[in-house]
Amino acid sequence: MLRYIIRRLLLVIPVLIGISIFVFLIMHLTPGDPARLMLGESAPTEQLEQLREELGLNDPLPVQYFRWLRKALRLDFGRSLRSKKLVTDEIMARLPASAELAVLAVAISVIIGVPVGILSASKPNSAFDNVAMVGALCGIGMPAFWQGIMFILIFSVSLEWFPSSGRMGGWQYYVLPALTLGTRSMAGIARMTRSSMLEVLQQDFIRTATAKGLARFRIIFVHALRNALIPVVTMVGLEFGGLMAGAVLTETIFAWPGIGRLVVEAINNKDFPLVQGTIMTFALVYALVNLIVDVLYAFLDPRLRVRYN
Amino acid sequence: MEAKEMTNSQPAAKDTVVEELTPQRSEAKRIFRRLLKNRRAVVGGILLLIIILMAIFAPFVAPYDPVKQNIRNRLQGPSREHILGTDQFGRDTFSRVVYGARISLRVGFSAILIAVVVGCLLGLVAGYYGGMLDNIIMRIMDVLMALPGFLLALAIVAALGPGMQNVILAIGISYIPSFARLMRSSVLTVRELDYVSAAEALGSSDARILFRHILPNSLNPIIVMVTLSLAGAILSAAGLSFLGMGAQPPTPEWGSMISSSRPFIRVSHWCVTIPGLAIFTTVLCLNLVGDGLRDALDPRMKDVG
Lengths: 309, 305
Description:
The structure holds two protein chains of two kinds.
Chain A: H1 2-29, H2 34-39, H3 45-55, H4 61-73, H5 87-122, H6 127-141, H7 144-158, H8 172-201, H9 204-211, H10 216-253, H11 259-268, H12 272-300, H13 302-308
Helix pairs in contact in A: 1-12, 5-6, 5-8, 5-10, 5-12, 6-8, 7-8, 7-10, 8-10, 9-10, 10-11, 10-12, 11-12, 12-13
Chain B: H1 2-21, H2 27-36, H3 39-56, H4 58-61, H5 93-129, H6 131-144, H7 149-160, H8 164-190, H9 194-201, H10 206-217, H11 219-242, H12 254-261, H13 270-297
Helix pairs in contact in B: 2-13, 3-5, 3-13, 5-6, 5-8, 5-11, 5-13, 6-8, 7-8, 8-11, 9-10, 11-12, 11-13, 12-13
């Protein structure tokens, strides 16, 4: 098990190096001179030259990259061009809000998605199954930003049940953003649970259990579910990626002070150090979540554990 | 319960036998017939066709110029003149949504075209030659997959600057890894088959083997993926435009229509609701057709995949 975890950890390193090169290049791929972009069109030449020297923009790209990487490894992405605060501080200030929203959204999607998937699979092609699966497809096709606006229109403007933006002030503020963010993963998880259950229900040990005369309820919840949930765990990990993307849109709609909104602000302000820092944070969190999911997967599936021991 | 499932699957099994016994009918026809039996896919397909026709014949379908302003008529609800109301500049929402179909479909198709061509080529090469080349290509794909697709596209647009061309490129790139991986894994399966060894023994060139023998036989999963990715690409493009990084006003793009009319939602919600419904319908139809195609191309996957 430990060997598997170490192996899996080692695999993350080259990917992170690759993504760091990409993130570093974001600023240099932008057409035009980064120094001019930062100071604006009308900046005097001396000032430009001074900034270039300061940022080391006159050095060859690889030299610049390694200098940037050395700092990035210490989680130092420089200062935001806008607020002049440290990028790391800006991100740390925003991370809790995003984490709260993500955890809530995952919880909602699992708590609703898994039971719906089980019920659908236990009676395939029934009315419930059809409604649930068309509903799930709708959830996948719904643009998160539009769904958020519609929620605001219905539940904030018309019904006045929940506030439309902000975070401070109680649980009511969490309802609409968490539901908006969770819808897509809920749909994905329901579909995955259903198909995974159907696959398991066709296997021999289920037939054996049925032949033994066990109750259908017991077969589904004790025998099938434990096996069916293994791919669902991976799905939760995959959905987390979609959740991070959804957070960018959801946080923008609900004026939620998380890093999804931070990255949009940074891009719109051409605040490159902040863009680099936030994108790198997203990549790190994504890698970490996938790592946890893979380890969990090995933990849940004894067949995998045996292969690595 | 078990008995019910049996009755459900029996006609399907019988059909497969009948289909296999009538070899004169081509594979494509058989798949199409199977697709036609899937009610959801048929509904999705018909709606999709209507959307595509609407996009092609936009100038004939739309009653008004999509960018012409008429301030005196702003933010109206549906009426006889404007069946879906008007936006904050008095532009006809229906006309703008019709023209928007052109943009969304073009962006989706262009982005996925980039992804399919580049991704499949990389996957073919990686899978067929293996070794170093395979390693290099697949590690680069791993890096591209280190960020969720939408965020990767966002980062690329952040680097290249806003605009529809950049959005197409960014979304295209973000879908390359999935196609490369899919293609590579099908190549690995197909290349072990006898007819490939036979072609190799006959001295066929690599290009001939790759494009005449391996590619056509790994096409099915690619077709399904194209349909489903199109849905994702359209959704991402609308999202990027909504954030102000894609189409710029006054272009009648669905995502940017929603974002620019959003401040007026308390006065009239039509100019926000309708473009969203358009995105939703298009994406849903593509997903329905994609799911249907997957079941039709591989009946064994039915109810499982």
